[in-house]
Amino acid sequence: MQRTTFTLRGIGTTAVGAVMGAAMAGTLLAAPAQAATAPASVSAQSCAGYLQKPYKVSGSKHIMALAEARGCGSRMQYEVFLQRSRWYGWQKMDTRRWTGDGSRTLSSACDGTHDWRLFMNVTEPGGQLGSRAGTSARLTC
Fold first, then answer.
1. What is the annotated signal peptide range for this record (predicted)?
2. Which of 6, 8, 78 is nearest to 43 (CA)?
3. Is residue 103 in a domain?
4. How do residues 28-45 score in pLDDT, each as one tens digit?
């Protein structure tokens, strides 16, 4: 299962993700320079997020994908959207929000053929640290 991997390695720097095995693609997430300080609980080596490539559940008309964050501390806030492509842009089909480490499964009923993706916003009290779109998948229901 393919997933997008991103890391936060300090404020104002760009972190390059790694390829997580043959089926997983790495990307990066940059923290904006305007943020003053990194939370004390964020470890440069261990703070990571994962956005799974959406997939169609076999034998059904449902799309699912997993979003996960770990090692980033209890102050980090996450908002993840399962989106599908439309002629006007990306339509939000499901949303999950949480604070601290954890994972959430997003799902939606589907019809027709669309591109699907996960999109994550990462914030802490006082400002947004970044956002990332995961790998999209063209799925037919």
1. 1-25
2. 8
3. yes
4. 333 332 222 333 334 444
In angstroms, the first-to-last Cα distance of the chain is 19
Let me know if residue 124 belongs to a domain.
yes
Q: Domain residues for 82?
A: 53-140
CA 101 to chain centre: 13
Buried b or exposed e, range 94-133, using 16+ CB within 10 angstroms = bebeeeeeebbebebebeeebebbbbbebbbeeeebbebe
Residue 125 maps to which CATH number? 2.60.40.10
Total number of domains in the chain: 1
pTM: 0.71
Residue 77 domain-assigned?
yes
CA 62 vs. chain centroid, Å, equals 19
Q: Residue 25 corresponds to which tokens in the numbers above?
A: 């693609």
Select the highest-mean-pLDDT range: 14-23, 43-52, 59-68, 124-133. 59-68
22 within some domain:
no
